[in-house]
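Let's practice the habit of predicting before peeking. Look at the sequence and jot down your guess about where helices and strands might fall. Then scroll down.
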Amino acid sequence: MSDSLLKMIVVVLGVICTLGIYSILYKENKIFRLFEHLYLGLAGGYAIAATWNDVLKPNWWEPMVKEGQWGLALILPAGSLFYFIYSKRNGWMARLIFGVFIGFASGQAFQSFAGDYWPKLQTAATKTIWVDPAKIKPEYPVAAYATAINNLIFLAILGAVMVYFFFSFEQKNTAVNKVSKFGRYAMMIAFGAMFGNTIMARMALLIGRIYFMIHAPDAISASANAGP
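Done guessing? Here is the structure:
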Protein backbone atom coordinates (compact mmCIF):
# COMPACT_ATOMS: atom_id res chain seq x y z
CA MET A 1 0.00 0.00 0.00
CA SER A 2 1.41 3.36 -1.03
CA ASP A 3 1.94 6.19 1.42
CA SER A 4 -0.55 8.44 -0.38
CA LEU A 5 -3.30 5.82 -0.22
CA LEU A 6 -2.54 5.17 3.43
CA LYS A 7 -2.77 8.89 4.24
CA MET A 8 -6.08 9.10 2.37
CA ILE A 9 -7.50 6.17 4.37
CA VAL A 10 -6.35 7.75 7.64
CA VAL A 11 -7.99 11.08 6.77
CA VAL A 12 -11.25 9.43 5.68
CA LEU A 13 -11.39 7.34 8.85
CA GLY A 14 -10.67 10.45 10.90
CA VAL A 15 -13.61 12.24 9.26
CA ILE A 16 -15.95 9.29 9.82
CA CYS A 17 -14.92 8.91 13.47
CA THR A 18 -15.28 12.66 14.10
CA LEU A 19 -18.78 12.74 12.61
CA GLY A 20 -19.73 9.60 14.53
CA ILE A 21 -18.57 10.97 17.89
CA TYR A 22 -20.16 14.38 17.41
CA SER A 23 -23.45 12.82 16.33
CA ILE A 24 -24.26 12.87 20.06
CA LEU A 25 -24.97 16.60 19.60
CA TYR A 26 -28.10 15.59 17.68
CA LYS A 27 -29.33 12.90 20.04
CA GLU A 28 -28.34 9.62 21.63
CA ASN A 29 -27.87 7.13 18.80
CA LYS A 30 -26.31 3.80 17.94
CA ILE A 31 -23.63 5.36 15.74
CA PHE A 32 -22.30 7.36 18.68
CA ARG A 33 -22.37 4.26 20.87
CA LEU A 34 -20.42 2.32 18.25
CA PHE A 35 -17.64 4.90 18.04
CA GLU A 36 -17.69 5.41 21.80
CA HIS A 37 -17.04 1.71 22.40
CA LEU A 38 -14.45 1.71 19.62
CA TYR A 39 -12.63 4.61 21.25
CA LEU A 40 -12.76 3.00 24.70
CA GLY A 41 -11.46 -0.26 23.28
CA LEU A 42 -8.57 1.45 21.52
CA ALA A 43 -7.80 3.50 24.64
CA GLY A 44 -7.82 0.35 26.77
CA GLY A 45 -5.52 -1.47 24.36
CA TYR A 46 -3.17 1.50 24.20
CA ALA A 47 -3.12 1.71 28.02
CA ILE A 48 -2.15 -1.97 28.28
CA ALA A 49 0.63 -1.55 25.71
CA ALA A 50 1.89 1.63 27.35
CA THR A 51 1.84 -0.01 30.80
CA TRP A 52 3.94 -2.92 29.55
CA ASN A 53 6.40 -0.91 27.43
CA ASP A 54 6.86 2.06 29.77
CA VAL A 55 6.43 0.54 33.24
CA LEU A 56 6.46 -3.25 33.57
CA LYS A 57 9.07 -4.15 30.96
CA PRO A 58 11.84 -1.67 31.94
CA ASN A 59 11.15 -1.66 35.69
CA TRP A 60 10.11 -5.28 36.33
CA TRP A 61 10.68 -7.77 33.49
CA GLU A 62 14.12 -6.67 32.27
CA PRO A 63 15.69 -6.24 35.75
CA MET A 64 14.36 -9.66 36.69
CA VAL A 65 15.40 -11.51 33.51
CA LYS A 66 18.54 -9.66 32.44
CA GLU A 67 19.93 -8.61 35.83
CA GLY A 68 18.78 -11.57 37.89
CA GLN A 69 16.68 -9.60 40.38
CA TRP A 70 14.30 -12.51 40.89
CA GLY A 71 12.97 -11.01 44.08
CA LEU A 72 10.78 -8.84 41.87
CA ALA A 73 8.80 -11.98 41.02
CA LEU A 74 7.08 -11.59 44.39
CA ILE A 75 5.25 -8.60 42.93
CA LEU A 76 3.35 -10.87 40.53
CA PRO A 77 1.04 -12.47 43.16
CA ALA A 78 0.22 -9.02 44.55
CA GLY A 79 -0.54 -7.70 41.09
CA SER A 80 -2.69 -10.72 40.33
CA LEU A 81 -5.00 -9.75 43.18
CA PHE A 82 -6.37 -6.92 41.03
CA TYR A 83 -8.05 -9.45 38.72
CA PHE A 84 -10.10 -10.95 41.57
CA ILE A 85 -12.39 -7.96 41.12
CA TYR A 86 -14.09 -10.02 38.40
CA SER A 87 -14.89 -12.78 40.91
CA LYS A 88 -18.07 -12.50 42.97
CA ARG A 89 -16.83 -14.99 45.52
CA ASN A 90 -13.26 -13.72 45.99
CA GLY A 91 -13.74 -10.05 45.16
CA TRP A 92 -12.63 -9.13 48.69
CA MET A 93 -9.06 -10.07 47.72
CA ALA A 94 -9.01 -7.31 45.11
CA ARG A 95 -10.10 -4.80 47.74
CA LEU A 96 -6.98 -5.59 49.76
CA ILE A 97 -4.57 -4.55 47.02
CA PHE A 98 -6.77 -1.61 46.02
CA GLY A 99 -6.65 -0.40 49.62
CA VAL A 100 -2.86 -0.63 49.68
CA PHE A 101 -2.49 1.29 46.44
CA ILE A 102 -5.05 3.91 47.47
CA GLY A 103 -3.08 4.40 50.68
CA PHE A 104 0.18 4.86 48.77
CA ALA A 105 -1.51 7.19 46.26
CA SER A 106 -3.08 9.25 49.05
CA GLY A 107 0.27 9.61 50.78
CA GLN A 108 1.98 10.71 47.59
CA ALA A 109 -0.85 13.14 46.80
CA PHE A 110 -0.57 14.66 50.29
CA GLN A 111 3.20 14.92 49.97
CA SER A 112 2.85 16.58 46.55
CA PHE A 113 0.17 18.95 47.85
CA ALA A 114 2.28 19.93 50.84
CA GLY A 115 5.35 20.43 48.65
CA ASP A 116 3.43 22.63 46.21
CA TYR A 117 1.24 24.70 48.52
CA TRP A 118 2.98 24.82 51.87
CA PRO A 119 5.73 27.17 50.61
CA LYS A 120 2.99 29.36 49.13
CA LEU A 121 1.16 29.48 52.47
CA GLN A 122 4.41 30.36 54.21
CA THR A 123 4.96 33.09 51.63
CA ALA A 124 1.42 34.35 52.18
CA ALA A 125 1.94 34.45 55.93
CA THR A 126 5.02 36.64 55.54
CA LYS A 127 3.82 38.52 52.47
CA THR A 128 3.98 42.29 52.65
CA ILE A 129 1.55 44.44 50.74
CA TRP A 130 3.93 47.12 49.48
CA VAL A 131 6.80 46.22 47.16
CA ASP A 132 9.70 48.45 46.26
CA PRO A 133 9.29 49.60 42.63
CA ALA A 134 13.02 49.11 42.06
CA LYS A 135 12.58 45.38 42.68
CA ILE A 136 9.87 45.05 40.02
CA LYS A 137 10.32 47.42 37.09
CA PRO A 138 12.21 50.63 37.82
CA GLU A 139 11.03 52.11 34.52
CA TYR A 140 7.39 51.30 35.36
CA PRO A 141 6.67 52.45 38.94
CA VAL A 142 2.91 51.88 38.55
CA ALA A 143 3.69 48.14 38.76
CA ALA A 144 4.43 48.60 42.45
CA TYR A 145 0.89 49.86 43.09
CA ALA A 146 -0.60 47.04 40.98
CA THR A 147 1.46 44.50 42.92
CA ALA A 148 0.38 46.03 46.23
CA ILE A 149 -3.28 45.80 45.23
CA ASN A 150 -2.79 42.19 44.09
CA ASN A 151 -1.10 41.28 47.40
CA LEU A 152 -3.89 42.96 49.36
CA ILE A 153 -6.58 41.05 47.46
CA PHE A 154 -4.63 37.81 47.86
CA LEU A 155 -4.31 38.17 51.62
CA ALA A 156 -7.94 39.25 52.01
CA ILE A 157 -9.26 36.26 50.06
CA LEU A 158 -6.92 33.85 51.85
CA GLY A 159 -8.07 35.08 55.26
CA ALA A 160 -11.76 35.02 54.29
CA VAL A 161 -11.55 31.47 52.95
CA MET A 162 -9.79 30.31 56.11
CA VAL A 163 -12.54 31.94 58.21
CA TYR A 164 -15.18 30.15 56.12
CA PHE A 165 -13.60 26.75 56.87
CA PHE A 166 -13.20 27.48 60.57
CA PHE A 167 -15.97 25.35 62.06
CA SER A 168 -14.76 25.22 65.67
CA PHE A 169 -17.42 27.70 66.74
CA GLU A 170 -20.74 28.94 65.41
CA GLN A 171 -20.33 32.08 63.37
CA LYS A 172 -22.89 34.30 65.10
CA ASN A 173 -20.82 37.48 64.98
CA THR A 174 -21.98 39.74 62.15
CA ALA A 175 -18.46 40.70 61.05
CA VAL A 176 -17.24 37.10 61.06
CA ASN A 177 -20.35 35.99 59.18
CA LYS A 178 -19.78 38.62 56.48
CA VAL A 179 -16.12 37.66 56.12
CA SER A 180 -17.16 34.02 55.83
CA LYS A 181 -19.66 34.88 53.10
CA PHE A 182 -16.98 36.83 51.24
CA GLY A 183 -14.74 33.75 51.37
CA ARG A 184 -17.56 31.59 50.02
CA TYR A 185 -18.22 33.99 47.15
CA ALA A 186 -14.49 34.12 46.37
CA MET A 187 -14.41 30.32 46.16
CA MET A 188 -17.47 30.33 43.91
CA ILE A 189 -15.70 32.74 41.56
CA ALA A 190 -12.59 30.53 41.61
CA PHE A 191 -14.64 27.41 40.87
CA GLY A 192 -16.41 29.25 38.06
CA ALA A 193 -13.04 30.23 36.58
CA MET A 194 -11.89 26.60 36.80
CA PHE A 195 -15.08 25.42 35.11
CA GLY A 196 -14.64 28.05 32.40
CA ASN A 197 -11.07 26.86 31.86
CA THR A 198 -12.38 23.32 31.42
CA ILE A 199 -14.93 24.53 28.87
CA MET A 200 -12.20 26.39 26.98
CA ALA A 201 -10.10 23.23 26.89
CA ARG A 202 -13.03 21.32 25.40
CA MET A 203 -13.57 24.15 22.90
CA ALA A 204 -9.91 23.91 21.91
CA LEU A 205 -10.42 20.21 21.13
CA LEU A 206 -13.56 21.04 19.15
CA ILE A 207 -11.74 23.72 17.17
CA GLY A 208 -9.01 21.22 16.35
CA ARG A 209 -11.54 18.72 14.99
CA ILE A 210 -13.37 21.44 13.02
CA TYR A 211 -10.06 22.54 11.50
CA PHE A 212 -9.37 18.92 10.59
CA MET A 213 -12.79 18.57 8.98
CA ILE A 214 -12.40 21.78 6.97
CA HIS A 215 -9.00 20.78 5.60
CA ALA A 216 -9.80 17.07 5.21
CA PRO A 217 -10.90 17.46 1.53
CA ASP A 218 -7.62 19.20 0.74
CA ALA A 219 -5.67 16.41 2.39
CA ILE A 220 -7.64 13.76 0.49
CA SER A 221 -7.09 15.59 -2.82
CA ALA A 222 -3.38 15.95 -2.11
CA SER A 223 -3.08 12.26 -1.31
CA ALA A 224 -4.99 11.31 -4.47
CA ASN A 225 -2.84 13.55 -6.68
CA ALA A 226 0.36 12.25 -5.14
CA GLY A 227 -0.09 8.91 -6.85
CA PRO A 228 1.51 5.62 -5.86
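How did you do? Residues 106 and 112 are 10 Å apart (CA to CA).
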